[in-house]
Amino acid sequence: MDHADPARAGDKVSILRQPTAVWATAGAAVVAFMGIGLVDPILPSIAKGLNATPSQVSLLFTSYFLITAVAMLVTGFVSSRIGGRKTLLAGLALVVVFAGLAGTSDSVGQLVGFRAGWGLGNALFVSTSLAVIVGAASGGAASAILLYESALGLGMACGPLLGAVLGDMKWRYPFFGTAALMAIGFVAISLFLKEQPKPAARTSLLDPVKALGHGGLASAAASAFFYNYAFFTVLAFTPFVLNMSPYRSGAVFFGWGVLLAVFSVLIAPRLQARFGSLKVLGSSLVLLAADLVVLGYGSHTTAIVCTVLSGAFIGVNNTVYTELALGVSDAPRPVASAGYNFVRWFAAAAAPYLAPKIEEWTDIHIPFVVAAVAAVVGAGVIVVRRRHLTVVHGEDVVARSHPAPHAAAGAATAEAHG
């Protein structure tokens, strides 16, 4: 299956020397990931503007990620039939429409509904963009994945800043801004990205679910489910606890995003090479749990520091979980990724809704304790199921996740075409 030129695959190609199509897709990916953290700094402003409670406003995340989770079963089905380029454009078009409509909302119910449509568009785009970047990038799969993770980190860091700058003027403006940026991405991909070859076999709606029958992939997804609960408690609930102006909250989450990007792209691979993926992941989850407890019980300044610091642990976890999901089973990478994301995004939908409710039932500290327990449970799954996560067909998962240069092009082909 590997038709690439080994010599070319082994050349050291700069991550910055990429075709225009790759930059167009990566740029749109930055904006797509910006949309996740965009509303963070303006959650209190939205609650005030629409006379809504924190738990009602947190449904912006719940509807978004619930639809994203379900859509993971649809994205492979769609892209394997209409191709990657058309799937990207369909996703971008949906984001442009629903982000724009979100800015016109007169009630929290309307806003939640429009965010759900936005989540469908984002799922179609984000799940397809990695395969497209891998298929079109220079330098093989390693450079392409690094570029994709850089886009993720940059988007997660800049989203809160954009939300703060525009939201300080009016809470509606960040939504209009996102619609405008995604429209630019739509035009860029229309002009510069050629249609990608369709996979030889079409993906069915149930293929991602069937892939979860593999013990290793199921274990990675189960652990990531509990981790994502902790992750999105930070992202969706902390802004209400900090209770700061959009600019100050945006600055906090910008620092959080910078650490997420640095540790995801630069630090995590080094830690994995030295200590192994499972040790790094288990330790990072326990440290995240400790950070959350201190965040919940510390002073306001301590809460700010711990919020920013959590970005480091989240960055490490994101990278290791992604590599486990893509390397631990024998399922095609897009199918394995869809099944894994189908499970973990349900926790991302649950946390924003449950955290404010838990505060209403108890006090402001307990949501962070629950999130910390979830992180520890995620680490426990890694420990208990490590045999299923360590070896696949006699190969170490880390070795498979970091292929040798001569195998990089083959991995790119596999991921691009499923």
UniProtKB/TrEMBL annotation:
SUPFAM superfamilies referenced in this protein's UniProt entry, alphabetically: MFS general substrate transporter
Domain Major facilitator superfamily (MFS) profile as annotated: residue spans: 21-390
Subcellular location(s) of the protein: Cell membrane
Keyword RNA-binding: no
Pfam families: MFS_1
First-listed, main subcellular location of the protein, grouped into a coarse class: membrane
Protein name: MFS transporter
